[in-house]
Amino acid sequence: MEPVLESLLADAPLSQENERPPRLMAAMRHAVLAGGKRLRPILVMEVAELFGRQDDGVLTAAAALEFIHCYSLVHDDLPAMDDDDLRRGRPTVHKAFDEATAILAGDALLTLAFDAITADPVHEDPAVRLVLTRELSRAAGIGGMAGGQMLDLESESRARSEQEIRTLQAMKTGALLRYACRAGALLANAHEGDVDRLTRFGEIIGLAFQLADDLLDVEASAETTGKATGKDAAAGKATLVGLHGVDATRAELAKLQAEATALLQPFGEKAKPLIELADFISNRNH
Amino acid sequence: MEPVLESLLADAPLSQENERPPRLMAAMRHAVLAGGKRLRPILVMEVAELFGRQDDGVLTAAAALEFIHCYSLVHDDLPAMDDDDLRRGRPTVHKAFDEATAILAGDALLTLAFDAITADPVHEDPAVRLVLTRELSRAAGIGGMAGGQMLDLESESRARSEQEIRTLQAMKTGALLRYACRAGALLANAHEGDVDRLTRFGEIIGLAFQLADDLLDVEASAETTGKATGKDAAAGKATLVGLHGVDATRAELAKLQAEATALLQPFGEKAKPLIELADFISNRNH
């Protein structure tokens, strides 16, 4: 993953004979090349491989998704949003640079994602690339990630029902994880039924990811996660762990893990890496 | 233009069964439906009409470009950037709402643009819609508008050569105006030579727009423009007017106007609306 991210950043396309401002490039690299888990691009690649596709075009689509994820972290970390100084154990972009640069670096990464996803190697059929582009926009936009972040910020100031929490989480983190799995299947020309199956797998991954994240916030220390913890409760943010407690949340996670495994059962041994990913997501401690 | 912007905002597509957060929708509407000049979408539409196309698909592509323009204004107005309280005589988005909402509204508008530009009615050929999508990303990204804004922020802290100023302006405001004209020609299946001609026309419009803007900043009152003026000099921002003076700038504007008119001469009477637009841009007082 890292070489593709590096080269797409280094070769960030220009409008005409214009230049790449070095400070903006540096901030974008700081945001992207920070050794994240690369969960979303790995999902794209593993799902595509499940259906027999594994090449640079898949990597490019996966990188587009990672750019979207990284932009969202840069903007979420801003003082006006979650106000985080630390991300993956390093200073956040607005701390390493400044706020204006962080806003622009996020904007430029979001924009670059829509260049990468349209690249010729992504899929030979322009119509498929258009679908991938449009669905990426919807997963990231007002009905997806950006809308979820808005609901999350609002939830600091008022109580939320379980359904409201589930909706905001499906939007804020679920939409991109769902897209990752769906995109992998579309990239590899999977049959419609299989696209639906992997889409559902992505939704389960999204739910499990959020539950595990909420558990981590309650249980882990800042040392393990490399970021500040216990912030949800301090900020008055409603979570499912807060509503149902740690034990019930662990039980729900186990159920999701079983559902994920059952969904991929028809693919036999080939699905092992994806099932291991689902396990990792449910049980991660960072 | 307004009904299309309204309906694309109202029908902002959802990822799945998710919701549109009302506060984010309101902030996006505040940013877009504020009675701007609509210069970029009008250029798209007038150029497409020059080559005989005039329908809802053109309007949708034009709206995508306006969303990009409006997102950039919302982010540029933020305290960490240009710190403007007033835009078109109304409170800026972060003043009417708050900073976090303004950041997210900008992000969501940028994202929505890439949904709109991929819409089926934009062009019957998916390959053309992909080109329009990719070029929109490049005009808006690190080698275009976002990169230009970075250079502009940096120019507050050090002197810039004439070439540097021209590059930053070609990126910050030029790239989208160039794209507007180019997209209009591509939408209407203009021949390659005509696409190049209209691309050059867009570049001239971009130069003229920036020179007229710099002149306005020096000359106009806050009353006429509906925004704070004299800010460039106060911020120590280098402009071509600052380098060459008002008279030389007026002379360059007249030359650009003549070049724009000459470029469209082969189209005869049909090009009149575009030539009038070029004149308006060169001579506007707000």
TrEMBL record, chains A, B:
Q: Which GO terms describe its molecular function?
A: metal ion binding; prenyltransferase activity
Q: Write down the Pfam families for this protein, in alphabetical order.
A: polyprenyl_synt
One GO location term (cellular component): cytoplasm
Q: Which Gene3D superfamilies match?
A: Farnesyl Diphosphate Synthase
Output the GO biological process annotations, alphabetical, semicolon-separated: terpenoid biosynthetic process
Q: Which SUPFAM superfamilies match?
A: Terpenoid synthases
Q: Which cofactor does it need?
A: Mg(2+)
Asked whether the UniProt record includes Metal-binding among its keywords, one would answer yes
Q: Which UniProt keywords apply?
A: Isoprene biosynthesis, Magnesium, Metal-binding, Transferase
- Which NCBIfam families does the UniProt record give? FPPsyn
Q: Say which family it is in.
A: Belongs to the FPP/GGPP synthase family.
Q: What is this protein called?
A: Probable farnesyl diphosphate synthase
The lineage is:
Bacteria, Pseudomonadati, Pseudomonadota, Alphaproteobacteria, Hyphomicrobiales
